[in-house]
Design goal:
Mean pLDDT: 96
Radius of gyration: 18 Å
Number of strands: 11
Largest sheet: 9 strands, mixed
CATH topology: TIM Barrel
CATH superfamily: Aldolase class I
Distance between the termini: 28 Å
Oligomer: single chain
Order of helices and strands: HEHHEHEEHEEHEHEHEHEHEHH
Strand content: 15-25%
CATH class: Alpha Beta
Number of domains: 1
Structural class: alpha/beta
Low-confidence stretches: none
Helix content: 40-55%
Length: 295
């Protein structure tokens, strides 16, 4: 593990950019960017187009380490290059931004009010490649739809079980049990979730470090205890379907919670924009998300 990157994530001011839309969500991300499905054919062409989009974001002067601590990549992006450098090396060497990798294979079918992670086949091999490509940490997303104690317990147990495997490989896992922002009992789910997270954190070996990626809580500063836990490097928040404006407003009310936005970060960016317009839009988004993250 890179000690300089560890310190940057632990103490730096800024947020984590999520550039990790994968298979199922890539067409939607491209469409939001103004690239319709009719303009590419087949998976390889689709991934080439999305890499063009991510390269444009990463190379933009707005994508600056002054505001951005880390960036989460999809496996396909990790394996590609920007200006002859592997994406993770470009991020760190040229930008000073810490690279993370999404490792999950999507969500299983809903059961007990939640969606667990699908089995992550070949995880050890993926972690080996991630280390070779100088990735710092990983992330994996589960989804909680309702306040079902059994379902939430299973989500957190699964996340920490895989998280320990990732930590043993020398990477920092981002544990991401998202609570659906539209669920009727979101606050109750958050209460159950916090309890399970604290229980799992207390059982970790003293030297194990994790990050948490959570929905912005219903009650402001509800995750303060998690932010202060000695095992937790950082607690980051997903935008979860809120508009950028609403996500920023909610985030700013939570001290110590920083953004890890995906859709809210790329809101308003379009393939058809001039570089000047694209960079201006991204710069404004980055600045506002940064301001909401440093409260």
């Amino acid at each position: 593990m890179n000690a300089e990157q560890l310190e940057r994530i632990r103490t730096g001011k800024g947020f984590v950019a999520a550039l990790d839309q994968s298979g199922g969500s890539t067409p939607k991300a491209l469409l939001q960017y103004g690239v319709p499905e009719s303009s590419y054919s087949g998976e390889e062409e689709m991934y080439a187009r999305v890499h063009e989009m991510r390269t444009r974001i990463i190379k933009s002067p707005a994508f600056d380490a002054k505001y951005i601590l880390g960036a989460i990549l999809f496996e396909n992006t990790m394996d590609r290059t920007i200006d002859g450098l592997l994406t993770a090396d470009y991020l760190w060497e040229k930008k000073g931004i810490v690279p993370f990798l999404k490792v999950d294979k999507g969500l299983a079918d809903r059961q007990d009010g939640v969606q667990l992670l699908k089995p992550i086949d070949g995880l050890d091999e993926l972690l080996r490649r991630a280390n070779e490509r100088h990735i710092f940490g990983t992330k994996m997303r589960s989804l909680i739809h309702e306040a079902n104690p059994e379902g939430i317990r299973k989500v957190v147990e699964q996340q920490f079980s895989i998280g320990k495997q990732i930590a043993q490989a020398g990477l920092v896992p981002i544990i991401e049990p998202e609570v659906d922002i539209n669920s009727a009992d979101k606050a109750v789910s958050e209460k159950l979730l916090k309890s399970e997270l604290l229980a799992q954190l207390s059982a970790l070996d003293p030297d194990v470090k994790v990050m948490l990626k959570l929905s912005i809580p219903t009650e402001d500063n509800y995750y303060a205890e998690l932010i202060e836990d000695p095992h937790v490097l950082r607690v980051v928040a997903l935008s979860g379907g809120y508009s950028q404006t609403e996500a920023n407003e909610r985030l700013a009310r939570n001290r110590g919670l920083i953004a890890s936005f995906s859709r809210a970060l790329s809101e308003g960016l379009s393939a058809g924009q001039s570089d000047e317009a694209f960079n201006a839009m991204l710069s404004e988004s980055v600045r506002q998300i940064y301001e909401a993250s440093i409260t």
